[in-house]
């Protein structure tokens, strides 16, 4: 899950902005748990597409 869509219950601002200590603590926790948390979904989809294309290319070359 990306934290850019989460809203802080303490200050009602997006957690990604880190306006209050609660936001900053949760943002740090999420970044430590998941190194891809800061990436937006389109970047993840693009990386997945590149990975699939590379696997398909390798499979085609070995056949």
Automatic annotation (TrEMBL):
Transmembrane domains' residue ranges: 39-59
Keywords: Membrane, Transmembrane, Transmembrane helix
Keyword Transmembrane applies: yes
Name of the molecule in the record: DUF2116 family Zn-ribbon domain-containing protein
């Amino acid at each position: 899950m990306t934290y850019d869509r989460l809203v802080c219950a303490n200050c009602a601002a997006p957690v990604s902005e880190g306006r209050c200590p609660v936001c900053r603590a949760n943002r740090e926790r999420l970044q430590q748990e998941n190194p891809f948390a800061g990436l937006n979904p389109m970047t993840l989809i693009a990386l997945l597409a590149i990975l699939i294309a590379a696997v398909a290319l390798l499979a085609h070359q070995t056949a």
